[in-house]
Design a protein that fits this description.
The chain is mainly β. It has strands at about 5, 10-15, 35-40, 45-50, 55-60, 65-70, 75-80, 85, 100-110, 120-125, 125-130, 140, 145-150, 155-160, 200-205, 210-220, 225-235, 240-245, 255, 270-275, 285-290, 300-310, 320-325, 330, 345, 350, 360-370, 375, 375-380, 390-400. It is rod-shaped, with a radius of gyration of 46 Å.
């Protein structure tokens, strides 16, 4: 390809013709702003220039590419806004892809680079996003081994090893919005229905035997049946655990030791104050009215009855207490069962009175029926007449 000097531009033009090549025995020197131009039929197709800012520019016409060779092979092709490397790109420093809001690094050829159906790393307003193509999982690997799999569509995360939460942090699962629900699921994905072993929640110290309680699932050898076992530490050995509670596949709960619990909170509390005149010795007064809200037909209740002189006359007895097991029943009769003396139960009673005074203080109870509602309860004081402003204080708790 011959070269010719262009006196109008001060450039050297490479002319596409079949005439002989031009050979220079010395350097070709051009000042800033002058070009080595490449023409095809008199039309400029490309040039090399040292511009006025001392920047070397390689230019080619629209619709054409620039190619860089090494070792006889194309290593780099520059197109319109693209750079294609024939091999791997090795960089000894940082690789920076910067944009004002949204910058992506596309990987592979799957999907469409004009949308999100592709594999890319994305910087979005300071957030790092990792994206896979539609229907594809995201895998995190070490030396070719999968450590974490995030499944497509479901978003489930599967860890190849343990999930460790360092002290004092906690593992939380929260509903995303009011009314939403979340579930912590420990699931065995084995196709064997009776394979429930290996599901375990344990608190331990390091990888050794020291630790605290743990929870584990144990298979029973029968499909869909496994037990949930709660165990405690009994020593420093690896197997020094003892079962404390078993929640069986049959719905039974089996405790290895005693069951203790704080005092129960009453379902209801009622205070009846004597007014007008004293209650006669042996006379009944209603303390739980028939049809009381919350009282359930044929349920079993424990009832505590405490009579206290309160702000009434200060004289013996000051307090008389008792209790009973009560099973109310709905009926259509509103007459007291058995009248004043029938179907009554004397309570094992305790009292507070002066030494040497009457010791025959006790309480007795009976049910009263209502019209189409659950029955109520009446109480009578025996051995004294509860005076005005004294109180019957009632507490009841359903146990069955």
């Amino acid at each position: 390809m011959p070269f010719k000097f262009n006196p109008l531009t001060g450039s050297i033009d490479a002319v596409n013709s079949r005439s002989e090549d031009a050979t220079f025995s010395q350097n070709i020197e051009l000042s800033k702003g002058k070009k080595v131009r490449f023409l095809d039929g008199g039309v400029q197709k490309g040039y090399i220039e040292l511009d006025n800012a001392s920047t070397i520019s390689h230019w080619c016409a629209s619709g054409h590419e620039q190619q860089f060779y090494a070792g006889g092979n194309i290593n780099l092709t520059l197109g319109s806004g693209t750079a294609t490397f024939a091999g791997k790109l090795e960089v000894t420093g940082n690789i920076e892809a910067r944009g004002s809001t949204d910058v992506k690094l596309y990987l592979g050829s799957t999907g469409d680079t004009t949308a999100n159906n592709n594999v890319h790393l994305r910087a979005d307003l300071g957030h790092l996003k990792l994206n896979s193509a539609d229907g594809k999982n995201i895998y995190f690997e070490e030396n070719g081994n999968t450590l974490l799999t995030i499944e497509n569509n479901s978003g489930n995360a599967t860890f190849a090893g343990n999930v460790i939460v360092s002290e004092p942090n906690t593992l939380n699962w929260n509903a995303s919005a009011p009314g939403a629900t979340t579930t912590l699921k420990v699931q065995n994905n084995s196709n064997n229905d009776n394979n429930a072993t290996g599901i375990e929640l344990r608190v331990q110290k390091g990888n050794g035997a020291a630790g605290m309680h743990y929870i584990t699932n144990t298979a029973t050898g029968t499909d869909y049946k496994s037990n949930l076992i709660f165990s405690r530490r009994t020593g420093s050995g690896a197997s020094d655990y003892a079962q404390t509670l078993t929640l069986g596949h049959d719905g039974k709960a089996t405790f290895a030791g005693d069951i203790s619990y704080p005092k129960a909170t009453p379902d209801g509390e009622i205070t009846v104050t004597i007014s007008g005149s004293a209650l006669a010795d042996g006379a009944y007064i209603t303390v739980i009215p028939a049809g009381t809200t919350g009282i359930v037909d044929a349920a079993t209740y424990i009832v505590s009855i405490n009579w206290d002189y309160a702000s009434g006359t200060s004289a013996a007895p000051w307090n008389v207490t008792g209790g009973t097991v009560w099973v109310p029943k709905a009926s259509n009769d509103n007459v007291p069962v058995g009248g004043d003396t029938g179907h009554e139960v004397q309570l094992l009673s305790s009292f507070h009175a002066d030494q040497g005074s009457n010791t025959n203080y006790y309480l007795k109870v009976r049910s009263i029926t209502g019209s189409g509602v659950q029955s109520g309860l009446q109480v009578a004081a025996v051995g004294w007449s509860p005076w005005v402003n004294s109180e019957f204080r009632i507490k009841y708790k359903r146990i069955m």
